[in-house]
Design a protein that fits this description.
The protein is mainly beta. It is 7% helix and 54% strand. It has two helices and 20 strands. The strands form four sheets. It has a twelve-stranded antiparallel beta barrel. The chain is elongated, with a radius of gyration of 24 Å.
């Protein structure tokens, strides 16, 4: 680590001669893909780029396959975890209160927000290879509705849950495949490191609230559901391929990428693999502003195995209720600073809504997601 300042200063100094030439090729708002596309471009040797993205995904209600399902219907649905034992808070003497999971679901998610602050850096190792590092800070918030007793639809109140912290850090190499005028393409090969916590605990409003504990009082459980954890817990391979071309002010691009889980995590399960494809069109209105439309489709597999500590009366505790197919449409805007202090600063926005969702089991329904970003090349 003591050599890092020297390395950074040397790299910044060596990059000075490339910036002016690089600007002549990239001083367009549409030279970068929509902000929701990661690893879309390469940099010249010695050039740095730093970025910040704020991503907010909102979920509202529940799906069973392709169809919406109400909280009352969920409360009448049989729970495959029924009969298992879980800790729901502690008794007065401090010993764990062990309870049997009821035959039907007692808790239904109402809405959820997943916010991410993504800090990124790119460095031109050579004209043909760019290194990329992504560091995510995640905050999950969920509102849930509890039902009393071991069955039935007698609601006893709502409660909130949240988790936050560092997600899985990703390191990738972008490798040039071809460049012919405005037409460019490159491969990506990366690795995701298991830095995100997979053992987060939290509180729930139990079905016995108002009987065994005061009404409205939550109790602690030993492990929250899979979607509230912050990482995969495994090393994941991140391959991809990106293509871009432009004719005057009209541009188009595509990217195919995957997440391949390489091993089970320490909790005994493996998240499903993910395959994703994106295609987009851009139109540059002025040199400093461009708009975009994009379609993204992805398919994510089920969780393999399970965390035996994750159990209870909620669908999101069931490992097989994971994985989905989804298609979404988005619109975006890219802004490029051209003068004085704003020079080489980029601001961007992308807003997306799903047009097709098909989930395994019972899962939350995605509503919309927003990405805001800033980028600066040095």
């Amino acid at each position: 680590m003591k050599f890092l300042p020297f390395f950074v200063c040397t790299a910044l100094a060596s990059s000075n001669y490339t910036i002016e030439a690089h600007e002549k090729k990239t001083s367009r708002a549409d030279s970068h893909a929509p902000i929701g596309v990661m690893g879309d471009h390469l940099h010249k040797k010695g050039e740095w780029m730093f970025s910040y993205r704020y991503m907010n995904m909102q979920m509202d209600g529940m799906l069973s396959g392709k169809n919406s399902i109400s909280a009352e219907q969920i409360a009448l649905t049989e729970n495959p975890l029924s009969g298992e034992t879980m800790r729901m808070g502690n008794l007065a003497d401090g010993s764990p209160r062990l309870m049997m999971v009821p035959p039907t679901y007692r808790v239904s998610p109402i809405d959820m927000s997943m916010e991410m602050h993504m800090i990124g850096g790119m460095y031109g190792w050579s004209d043909d290879i760019t290194m990329m590092l992504m560091l995510p800070i995640i905050q999950n918030k969920m509102t849930l509705l509890s039902y009393g007793g071991s069955s039935g639809t007698n609601s006893i109140g709502t409660f909130d849950g949240d988790t936050s912290g560092l997600g899985d850090v990703k390191l990738s190499a972008l490798i040039k495949y071809s460049e012919d005028g405005n037409q460019k393409s490159h491969f990506t090969i990366g690795l995701s490191f298991p830095t995100g916590n997979t053992t987060k605990k939290g509180n729930i409003l139990p079905p016995f609230a108002g009987v065994m504990t005061p009404a409205g009082e939550t109790v602690e459980i030993d492990r929250l559901g899979y979607s509230m954890q912050l990482g995969s817990g495994s090393y994941d391979l991140l391959p991809g391929f990106t293509f871009y071309d432009r004719d005057d002010n009209l541009g188009w691009g595509s990217q195919i990428s995957a997440v391949v889980r390489l091993d089970n995590n320490d909790e005994g399960y493996r998240l499903g693999n993910r395959l994703e494809a994106q295609v987009w069109l851009t139109n540059q209105w002025q040199s400093w502003i461009s708009g975009s439309v994009k379609m993204k489709a992805f398919s994510e597999g089920k969780i393999s195995g399970r965390d035996d500590i994750i159990t209870g009366g909620m669908p999101l505790f069931v490992s097989s209720h994971s994985g989905r197919d989804q298609v979404e449409l988005s619109i975006g805007i890219n802004l490029l600073g051209e003068d004085s202090l704003l020079k080489r600063h980029r601001l961007a926005m992308e807003f997306a809504v799903p047009i097709y969702q098909n989930v395994n089991g019972l899962q939350m329904e995605n509503d919309w997601n927003l990405t805001l970003g800033w980028q600066k090349a040095l």
